[in-house]
Amino acid sequence: MKYSSFLFIVLLSMLSCKNNTARKPVVQKTSSFLEESVSFNKALISEEEAIFKELIQLDSLNSYVQSAQGFWYKVEQKDSLRYLPKFGDQLSYTYEVYAIDSTIIYSFEEIGEKTYFVDQQEIIEGLRNGLKLMSEGDTYTFLFPSHKVFGYLGDQNKIKINQPLIYKVKLNKIKKKNESN
Q1: Strand, helix or coil at 168?
Q2: For residue 154, what is the domain's CATH number?
Q3: Alpha carbon distance 124, 130 (integer Å)
Q4: What are the φ and ψ backbone dihedral angles of 34, each rounded to 5 degrees?
Q5: What is the per-residue pLDDT across 144-154, written as a single tens digit (0 to 9) for each?
Q6: pTM of this structure
Q7: What Rg do the C-alpha atoms of the chain give, in angstroms?
Q8: Residue 173's beta-bridge partner residues?
């Protein structure tokens, strides 16, 4: 009996030790997802640019400037002072946010006055770049593509995913970094 159970265990272990062939991976990694993502983003940017160009044509009384950072803006009110914000300057500004169809999303009152230390705090990319173009007292209207504002996440409140936006911004005060309190 002992001999037969020993023989059974030896046979079982010999049969279980055969070479297993490797399985093919269930998920094969390819670059197709990346290619699809690039194609989607290029189409989205192209579509948003077409919308902005149409808006600019409809607003023929104003002239818009295309920035090197990938957004458009027009000057609503320009102050005679021409000091542009630099690293570390403290900016006080107000703004409101509109959808492309000019419906208001966030008003000046809802947002209130904001403070920003240039290039030392995180704010959305479009606003960060736009504020650097302005002088104290200026009011600009910015046309931001979705990737310059809230992108594929939206603000998880009123701003939808991949939504291009119009910002009306007034730069109230620039406190230079070197100024004492």
Answers
A1: strand
A2: 3.10.50.40
A3: 10
A4: -65, -45
A5: 999 999 988 88
A6: 0.78
A7: 29
A8: 92
